[in-house]
Amino acid sequence: MKTKFILYTLGLFLLLNITACSKQDDLTPSNNNKFVESPDGVESSNQISGTIIPEKDLIQATHQLYKDKYRSSKKLKYDFITHKSMTYICAKKLNLSEERAIIMRDASIMPDFYQTGIENGYNQQWSHAFMLKKTIFGTSWVWGDADDDFHDNLDGDSGEVESPEGYNGKWAGHYYKKGERDLGDWYVGYACHFMEDIGFVLHTSFPNIAMLAHHLDFEVWMDNNWNQGYRFIDDASSISPSDYHYIEKPKQAINQAAKASNWYYSKYGKKAWEAYQASGYPTKAGTGNQELVDYTRSMIKETTKWTGGTIQYALNKYNQW
User: Rounded to 10 degrees, what is the CA torsion of 313, 149, 147, 134?
Assistant: First the structure.
């Protein structure tokens, strides 16, 4: 049974030697005033961490936070660019309207706000990871419950002790079944965040202390090369919807995606990290050796396939095309 952690670093050190563990009011869709300033009483700064926003304000407040962080700031934290861009690209490639793609895009960055900080027990580090290792007994889960957060934001209570782990106890299917498509779309975008994190070796592996020490450096390097330098955005854009992974069971999909990026199992996860080390842990656009660039491109393409598959899964299951 999974247990809550206190601190990410301490937990990782303790878990390094583990070899096996058991594995977890109305909003009108056609509202043209959806993307406006945040309503009274809703804080749109980092103070939003730990705050539960009423569902009637959720989409507006999310969009305001998005604008605050992207359109007015020159310093963009990693994952903000990657998450919002990858989610938006997949939604548009699936022929969703601009409005629906924006809702999913904005929601995809929200777990980094709602699950961060001491007031949330540093839940971001726990919920955004799904670390695996290879043992003599086969594959062992070591750390993180991204599989539960992913499932619960799409389909509700997964039966784990900590469930339901969807934002504010709700999920996409809850709102789709009520006919509130926009809020359903918001939860799909929110769920995409967990799949996108698991698509990168940093969130599925802990082979050595260097990965912990330079985790953020690698993310900054990716961010700085998203729209410039090596332009990783082009790799995400190059994937056709016909290549998106078919998802039948969300938890199973997280396991598969984790193996695809994991240090021990991936064709490119380990090589990408080793190339990053060999390059001296760069952070700027256009830096790093060719192997690093090539293997990172592979991770991005694979993650895009899982992200697109996530949106397809939800819209197919709840008939929301």
Answer: 150
Q: How many whole angstroms separate alpha carbon 154 and alpha carbon 51?
A: 21
Condensed to tens digits (0 to 9), the pLDDT of residues 110-168 reads 888 765 433 344 444 556 788 898 888 888 888 888 999 999 999 999 888 777 889 99
Nearest-angstrom CA–CA distance, 316 and 321: 7
With a cut of 90, say whether residue 209 has pLDDT above it: no
Residue 255, amino acid: N
Least confident among 13-17, 174-178, 242-246: 13-17
Spatial separation of the C-alpha atoms in residues 297 and 272, rounded to whole Å: 9
Q: What is the rounded distance in angstroms from the CA atom of residue 120 to the CA atom of residue 130?
A: 19
Q: Is the pLDDT of residue 46 over 70?
A: no
CB 125 within 8 A of CB 5: yes
| d(C-alpha 39, C-alpha 64), whole Å | 9
- Which amino acid, 290? Q
Task: Band the pLDDT of 226: cuts 50, 70, 90.
Answer: very high
Task: Find out whether 112 and 120 touch, Cβ atoms under 8 Å.
Answer: no
Query: What's the rounded Cα separation, in Å, for the pair 127 and 146?
Result: 5
Written as six digits, the tokens of 103 are 């809702």
> With 0-12 CB in 10 A as exposed, 13-18 as middle and 19+ as buried, what is 99?
middle
Per DSSP, the residues of 265-284 read T-SSHHHHHHHHHHTTS--S
What's the pLDDT at 50? 52
pTM: 0.83
φ, ψ of residue 144 to 5 degrees: the values are 95, 150
How many CA atoms lie less than 13 Å away from 30 in the CB half-sphere? 0
